[in-house]
Structure formats: structure tokens, C-alpha cells
Amino acid sequence: MSAAVLRVILADDHTLVRAGIRRILESRAGCVVVGEAADGFEAIDALRQIDADVLVLDLKMHGRDGIEVLKVAKVERPDLKVIVLTMHAGREYVVRAMEEGADGYLLKDSAVQDLASAIDAVMAGRTYFSPVIQQQMAAILKGRSPATPDLRALTDREREVLILLARGLATKEIATTLDIGTRTVETHRANVMRKLGVRSVALLTQVAIREGIVDLPSQ
């Protein structure tokens, strides 16, 4: 039974906000908040000391900000899923969170509608972004012109995995589609990220869209 429990760390510097988000999270069957943090230092301590599956993270906190916490989480706890939950929809915030490997990015005013779906998505190996953030991503994609990655460095199987990731398939779905194991999918995904120089599935999706491998999502 314990294997079905989803363990969440909640980091936000507003007590009332944490209380509200905790209620939303724990209304989801099998979801338990196992740790809370009121600033960036506490968040880093929590992710280092508490065994958890998901970190729900505000960006603007005292001490160390959410981006710094995100960096530490992705280096020290690469299996920990990180969902940014913030009031900031600005381009610079979205870009930095994506570059540091955020698995999801939600606005606080959509938490009631979106947080449970975001958790389900990231735990299935997908990313999840609020509709407003999806629009920002589309704008970023159109407006940025980073160095073009060399897709020729990818093997045929790695290219197939990239396409399916960019289409939003979860790890298990990719494994089924390609008739390979989930660990093999994870290995291919790590190789693709390394070869293309990106650190998140969201940025992989940007690359795939920009290079014409998949189409830009309609929403």
C-alpha cells in the first residue's frame, strides 16, 4: 500500500498559500505532503533529508530563490519531479525554469484546476504547463534563436524517442510504442539531452518543434 503513496514537498514562503496548496494536494487520493519549507534554504534541506517524489516549488522565496532550489534539486535529486507553482508568468521566469529542468510550470490562480493533472503528468514522465505558460513557450520558441543543435548526432532510435517525447508521450507509452524497456527509453532520453545540450523535456520539445521534427501544439 505504501508504494502507492505519492510524497510531496511543498516550498512557498506564505503560510496561508502553503495551507491552501496542501489541501489541494491531499484531496488527491494517495497524495501526502511529507515536508514544507518557508524559504529556499529550508527547501534545499527538505529535498536533501526527506524521501519524496515531487517538489512543488515557488520561485520567489527568501534566502535562496526557487531557481537556485531547482538547480540543486536537479543535480542532487535527478529523479525528483519539480513543479513550479508561482504567480509569475513573465518570459524570463519561464525560460530560466525550463532551462534548469522544471517538469511543470503552473500559475497559482490555476492550481485548483491544474495541480492534480500536473502531478499525474510528471509522474508519468511527461511535462505539464498552464495554458498561459504554453503561450509563453510558443512565443519563446518563435522569438529565440539559440545555436542550432546537431540532430545528426542522434541515432535513429534516439530520434524516434525525441519525436515521441515531443508529442507528449510518457516513458511507458514510448516503451510500448517502440517495443523496448522503460529503462532503455530513459537511457535514450538522457543521451538525447546530453547530445543536444538541453536539460529538460520542455526544451527537447522546443528543439523538435524548431527543427520541424514535430508540429507546434495548437494550444
Question: Secondary-structure blueprint of this entry?
Answer:
Elements: E1 6-11, H1 15-26, E2 31-37, H2 40-49, E3 54-57, H3 66-76, E4 81-86, H4 91-99, E5 104-107, H5 111-123, E6 128-129, H6 131-143, H7 156-166, H8 171-178, H9 182-196, H10 201-210
Structure description:
This protein has helices spanning 15-26, 40-49, 66-76, 91-99, 111-123, 131-143, 156-166, 171-178, 182-196, 201-210, and strands at residues 6-11, 31-37, 54-57, 81-86, 104-107, 128-129. It is an alpha/beta fold. It has 2 domains: 2-136, Response regulator (Rossmann fold); 145-210, Arc Repressor Mutant, subunit A. The chain has a 6-stranded parallel sheet with strand order 2-1-3-4-5-6, with helices on both faces. Helix 2 (40-49) packs parallel to helix 3 (66-76), helix 7 (156-166) crosses helix 9 and helix 8 (171-178) packs across helix 9. The termini are far apart.
Structure, briefly:
The protein has 219 residues and is an alpha/beta fold. It contains 10 helices and 6 strands; from the N terminus they run βαβαβαβαβαβααααα.
